[in-house]
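Section 5: illustrative case.
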């Protein structure tokens, strides 16, 4: 393969079944145009932040689940059919131990590294990890402004720990981190801040 020009950016999601399939497909069709290749946000991440509702918030001891999507797998497939959580009465602070992103990144990186070693991914192309911002990862699931703010205070440091762990597990020269700023753009477009303390 030719040396990468880095003139194409993949945003993260690729509608394929496995990270290995994503890497192979992207490298074969766009490899020389890419500075980095994401793993496609496969598996539980295929509906972006729904994985956080399903695997982090649902069942958390400080939270109660008010509504869940109609689908059996708990992944929302239409606008308005979403998870809603609230803090349990009396909860003034909470913590999140594992948001899962570091584990997913480490697993996908192993597949990426093996394919690159075999020459199926061009040398110099990095492994891209796409993450929701701390606001994006949690705010949409909480309909009470104060709950949203308290959850954000716990979620932000948890996400920073995920980033730290990703940076520990993946060599810096192989890593490209991308923040998904969907919710922030929506805030600007609608002039509707998601956090209670915002002006």
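Designed sequence:
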């Amino acid at each position: 393969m030719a040396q990468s020009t880095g003139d194409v950016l993949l945003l993260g999601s690729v509608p394929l079944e496995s990270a290995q399939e994503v890497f192979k497909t992207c490298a074969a069709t766009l490899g020389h145009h890419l500075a980095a290749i994401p793993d496609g946000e496969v598996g539980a991440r295929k509906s972006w932040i729904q994985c956080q509702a399903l695997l982090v918030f649902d069942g958390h001891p400080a939270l109660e689940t008010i509504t869940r999507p109609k689908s059996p797998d708990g992944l929302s497939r239409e606008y308005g059919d979403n998870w809603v959580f609230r803090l349990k009465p009396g909860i003034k602070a909470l913590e999140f131990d594992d948001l899962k992103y570091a584990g997913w990144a480490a697993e996908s990186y192993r597949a990426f590294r093996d394919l690159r070693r075999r020459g199926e991914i061009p040398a110099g192309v990095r492994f891209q990890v796409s993450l929701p911002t701390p606001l994006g990862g949690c705010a949409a699931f909480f309909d009470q402004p104060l709950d949203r703010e308290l959850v954000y205070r716990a979620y932000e440091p948890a996400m920073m720990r995920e980033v730290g762990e990703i940076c520990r597990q993946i060599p810096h020269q192989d890593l490209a981190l991308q923040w998904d700023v969907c919710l922030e753009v929506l805030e600007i477009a609608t002039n509707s801040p998601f956090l209670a303390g915002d002006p």
